[in-house]
Amino acid sequence: MPSRHSQLRYLAAVAEEGQITNAARRLKLTQPTVSQAIAQLEAELGIVLLERHPRGVTLTPAGEAFLAKAPAALAAERDAARTAESLVRAAEGALVVGFIGPPPATSTPELFVEFTENHPDAQLTFRDLPFPCGTTSAWLEGADVAFCHRPRAETGVGVQPVRVEPRALVAARDHPLALRAELSAEEILDETFVSYGPEVQPEWAGFHSIDDHRGAPPQHTTHDHALTSLQMLGVMFSSRAITTVPYADARIAQQVLPHVAAIPLTDLDPAEVSLVWRTDNLSPMLEALLTAAQALVDGV
Amino acid sequence: MEFRRGHLRYFITVADEEQITRAARKLHIAQPALSQAIAQLESDVGVELLTRHARGVTLTAAGEVFLTKARAAVSAWTDAVATAQSLAQGRPGTIEFGFVGSPPALDSPGPLEAFAASHPLIDVRYREIQFPSLPTADWLAEVDLAVCHAPPPGADTWTQVLRREPRVVLAPKRHHLAEQREVTVAEVIDEVFIGFHPSVEPGWAGFWSLDDHRGAPPSHMTRDRAANAQEVLASLAARSAITTVPASVAHVIVNVLAGVVAITLRGAEPATVMLVGREDRRSSSVDAFLAFAANAPAPRSSAAREKRRPGAADAL
């Protein structure tokens, strides 16, 4: 039996093409495969989704409604599957630590190096995450915990600060601002900022473009969008734009990439580099990591 | 990863009922099948979701977490399906529903009642039609669809299998076989069978006199020219001849006609009951019925037939 995902993909293609034959060609499948998959879906649901005409097919109103609502249901099912994966990791003592920017063990060795020493059984896996898109909990799906500055706050998502530090400007070394020892927010407000993809959480993008200080998005942004930290550096170089990141991350970028300048910003609200997790995550290793992070903050 | 169809809903019901047996009853499935499905789900998930006790089951901590997600997924699917169904039911229409022999609502009322309940705007009108004649499309000219055992194939017609059921021998009470509870094909193959009208498609008529097993028409047939079920019954009542019918039809007839008995027939190929209709009469109402029929559970036997309403949840 084809998966629900396939059935929906076929139905969507048929609806767009208005013809099963053309949809099958587009999907690189045979026409009977597509017809049967849709007929089977109709039979399973007890609902006619396609109206068959002599020269093609159109969605029935029921089919339109189903096609509009089914993706959310499929996403909810995928969410359940991701939860299942995290439950398995919890049972096995495995922990996937997502991160944005430099690897956590380089920026915050006092937490991660010590944690792995104190928990030799913990199977820690580090995963490079894209910038948060959509809901924070959906973005967290592949990881037990993320290490980054704050994404959008949500119920069901826990946030625990690990470091509070100033923000820093990141620019190419030959950028006019790169010669300064430090900068105020006022001095960079009207620069061209790296643009973030429209799907990136506006709170996240706004933090990098100091929208919190300006009260609005920057006037000038690049044509290119960045969805990951590496893309952010790429866009910064190619478009001669600037952006801001937590100071420790900027310093690491500067050490690794000789053409990057990191300049502290003196008067911006600081960045809270935090652990972010879904509160329904039962992993004992997560619990242990949160305890270790809290001890670090408390100076124990 | 997608979960197997129905498994999330099964798990939710088991969690709510705290007992596999009670959950199985509520879900209208056999208890071993439910236990197996839950075990399969746990293996797919990769962790134990339930703790088994002597008196039932409780959720593990992982099960509690997973239950929340399973509920969200199932309710999202239910919403998608229910919304679509409410729109599907919103289209008025009629179905001229043909039948051959006993009225379909008598031999399996559950699905037809359920269809009427879930599609209140579609009027179903029942019409008795003659036994199949050729061309098939002409035989079906007056109806949108008909329910009939293996109708003759024809150009411009569609078919959909409804169910398979055993053939049963019908005999008048005074017939020498009437005392038997069951007979084999070999024991009845040389009996006198009821004759059909020449207009009735010979392959179709021959099925009822077991020509498929004999490879030829019976050597002895009555001189009846039955062209519909009433005429077959009239002949049965008047003569000492037999015929065979699908079990569900026999069940109705023996309840109506005191003078006729039904005898289990061993070793005969089953009868395939089908829906059939003309392509040019295939409307959205007919499509709705076909989709519904494909989804409806096949009745197991006349006695054990459940009045079960298939709905959105069954598809999940």
Count of the domains of chain B: 3
Given the structure, what is the number of helices of chain A?
Answer: 13
User: What is the name of the CATH topology of the largest domain in chain A?
Assistant: D-Maltodextrin-Binding Protein, domain 2
Class by alpha and beta content of chain B? alpha/beta
* Anisotropy-based shape of chain B: globular
Q: Which percent range describes the beta-strand content of chain B? A: 15-25%
Gross morphology of chain A: globular
CATH architectural grouping of the largest domain in chain A? 3-Layer(aba) Sandwich
Greatest contact between two chains: A-B, 40 and 45 residues
The CATH homologous superfamily of the largest domain in chain B: Periplasmic binding protein-like II
Number of helices of chain B: 13
**Could you report the average pLDDT of chain A, rounded to the nearest whole number?**
91
The residue-averaged pLDDT of chain B reads: 85
Q: From the 3D coordinates, which CATH architecture of the largest domain in chain B would you assign?
A: 3-Layer(aba) Sandwich
CATH topology-level name of the largest domain in chain B: D-Maltodextrin-Binding Protein, domain 2
Number of DSSP E strands of chain A: 12
Radius of gyration of chain A: 24 Å
Order of helices and strands of chain A: HHHEEHEHHEHEEEHEHHEHEHEEH
How would you characterize the overall build of this protein?
- Chain A is of the alpha/beta class and 300 residues long.
- Chain A is 46% helix and 23% strand.
- Chain A has a five-stranded mixed sheet.
- Chain B is of the alpha/beta class.
- Chain B folds into three domains: 7-89, Orthogonal Bundle (Arc Repressor Mutant, subunit A), CATH 1.10.10; 93-164 and 272-302, Periplasmic binding protein-like II (D-Maltodextrin-Binding Protein, domain 2, 3-Layer(aba) Sandwich), CATH 3.40.190; 167-269, D-Maltodextrin-Binding Protein, domain 2, CATH 3.40.190.290.
- Helix content of chain B is 41%, strand content 20%.
- Chain B has 13 helices and eleven strands.
- Chain B has helices at 7-17, 20-27, 31-45, 61-89, 104-107, 109-118, 136-139, 185-188, 202-208, 211-214, 229-238, 247-256, 284-295, and strands at 50-53, 56-59, 93-99, 122-128, 145-149, 157-165, 167-172, 182-184, 243-246, 260-266, 271-278.
- In chain B, a hairpin with a 2-residue loop joins strand 1 (50-53) and strand 2.
- In chain B, helix 1 packs across helix 3, helix 1 (7-17) packs across helix 4 and helix 2 crosses helix 3 (31-45).
- Chain B is globular.
- The chains are: A alpha/beta (300), B alpha/beta (316).
- The A-B interface holds A 1, 3-5, 42-49, 51-52, 60-63, 65-66, 69-70, 72-73, 75-81, 83-85, 87-88, 90-91, 280, 282 and B 1-3, 5, 8, 44-47, 61-62, 65-66, 68-70, 72-73, 76-77, 79-81, 83-85, 87-88, 90-91, 118, 282, 284, 287-288, 291-292, 294-296, 310-312, 314-315.
